[in-house]
Specification:
Elements: E1 2-5, H1 11-24, H2 34-42, E2 49-55, E3 58-68, E4 77-85, H3 94-108, E5 113-116, H4 123-131
Parallel strand pairs: 4-5
Antiparallel strand pairs: 1-2, 2-3, 3-4
Length: 147
């Protein structure tokens, strides 16, 4: 397995995986809007960076993240927005490899932490994060404002 940074050439595959993520959470399995994925990946100010876990030509999973500053205490933070492993690739170390690469990216940039959220009704994700030795942070309340 290799972990690589996604490029414009990966837009179609990312579009399909985003549809799989939506389906996992109860939505439609349709691929995400390909033009939007291309635009967001290739802009001068990308909406996120994406890491892909690959086995040869097959993409097994992805991690999308953004860099945040200032984080609490004027520190820097790599914020994991989405971690997803395709169903037939789960329990094979893919998520762990993606998390390790995220930590390496953050460390390489001199960032002070990696942060993420998880749905309370996703016991598999919660167990995975607990197995990494991380504890839930209870100091924040999550808000969302729809535009």
């Amino acid at each position: 397995m290799q972990i690589t940074a996604a490029t414009q050439a990966d837009a179609e595959e990312i579009s399909v995986i985003l549809g799989e993520i939506e389906h996992y959470y109860g939505g439609s399995p349709e691929p995400a809007d390909l033009e939007q994925v291309r635009r967001l990946l290739g802009s001068n100010r990308p909406a996120a960076d994406v890491l892909l876990a690959r086995d040869g030509d097959r993409v097994l999973g992805l991690a999308s993240y953004s860099l945040l500053w200032p984080a609490a205490g004027a520190d820097t933070s790599l914020y994991l927005k989405e971690l997803f492993v395709r169903e037939d690739a789960r329990r094979r170390g893919v998520a762990g490899a993606l998390m390790a690469e995220l930590r390496a990216v953050a460390t390489g940039l001199g960032y002070s932490r990696v942060e993420w959220t998880a749905d309370r009704d996703n016991p598999a994700a919660l167990a995975f994060y607990a197995a990494l030795g991380t504890e839930p942070h209870t100091g924040k309340v999550f808000y969302r404002s729809t535009l």
